[in-house]
Amino acid sequence: MMPQQNQKDPEKVNQAVHNIDKKIEEVRGTTEYLLLLLDQNDKLQWPDMFNKFSSLASGMQQVQMLMKKSAITAGIEDQGAFLRQHLVVPQKLVPEIDPQLAAMTQGRVQVWNHDTLPDYMRTKLNPEVEQDENSIVSTKSADQIVRQIATMNKHIDVMFATMNEHGKQAEERFQSKPSCIPLETAKLVHAIMNGNSLKPAERNPGSDPVGAARGPPAQS
User: Fold this and answer.
1) Number of domains in the chain
2) Does 95 share its domain with 105?
3) Which domain holds residue 41?
4) Which whole-number Å values give the CA distances from 96 to 109, 119, 121, in the listed order?
5) Is residue 203 part of a domain?
6) 3-state SS of 26-57?
7) Residue 102: how many CB atoms within 10 A of its CB?
8) Does residue 104 lie within any of the structural domains?
9) Rounded to whole angstroms, how far apart are CA atoms 103 and 110?
10) Dist. CA 70–CA 64, nearest whole Å
């Protein structure tokens, strides 16, 4: 990005980048765990998978909401206008392997040179990818594409319905049932604190009252 002395509100820019990086890292962790579940095949627990799908959908929605505020949590929804005001300008190209860059990108990018820069700074797809996409689209008719989209939407609707049903059942299953009656509890508290509704113990008519004075024993 541009040097901080040439930026407007550099602290806000750094905070926005930090927020984006943190949220994307959470989504990445959820995606990795979901892929790990899919590799388990027979050991796969569908409730766990649905929970992770729900977490992934929630994480993506949070990323979308974050970008609407330009990644400023206390900001307004400017649809990313603040971020678009700042250009990403490379300051230095190094032909050697950069350990710090490799660590920051978890080994995905080790060199920042004339070969890697166009791939990561481009705003359009690679020409090869664009050609492959056009060739795939050209081999299918419009009706076939519409049917495939409808089928995929149907699968997604079924998955979301199953997830919602599973969540509703889990909520009903784990919903805490009341273990006491509030009215009876209030009566018990009033009885202990104030003696309400308590009756004195019944005594026999001929018995001495509790605490009555007794005379000295008779002398023989």
Assistant:
1) 2
2) yes
3) 1-89
4) 12, 18, 19
5) no
6) HHHHHHHHHHHHHCCHHHCCHHHHHHHHHHHH
7) 14
8) yes
9) 8
10) 10
- 35 with 96, same domain: the answer is no
How much is the pTM?
0.48
Residue recorded with tokens 């890697």: 116
Give, for all 220 residues of the chain, the pLDDT tens digit: 444 444 577 888 888 889 998 999 999 998 988 888 878 777 777 787 788 888 888 888 888 888 888 888 777 888 888 888 887 778 888 889 999 989 988 888 899 988 888 888 877 777 788 888 888 888 888 888 888 889 989 988 888 888 888 778 777 776 666 667 888 888 888 888 887 777 766 666 555 555 444 555 555 4
- Which amino acid does the sequence have at 44? L
- Asked if the structure places residue 146 within a domain, the reply is no
Instruction: Tell whether 2 and 64 lie within a shared domain.
Output: yes
Contact call for residues 130 and 136 (beta carbons, < 8 A): no
Dist. CA 15–CA 83, nearest whole Å: 11
CA atoms 62, 65, 66, 72: torsion sign: negative
**94 bridge partner residues:** 112
Q: How many CB atoms lie within 10 A of CB 92?
A: 6
E-state strands within the chain: none
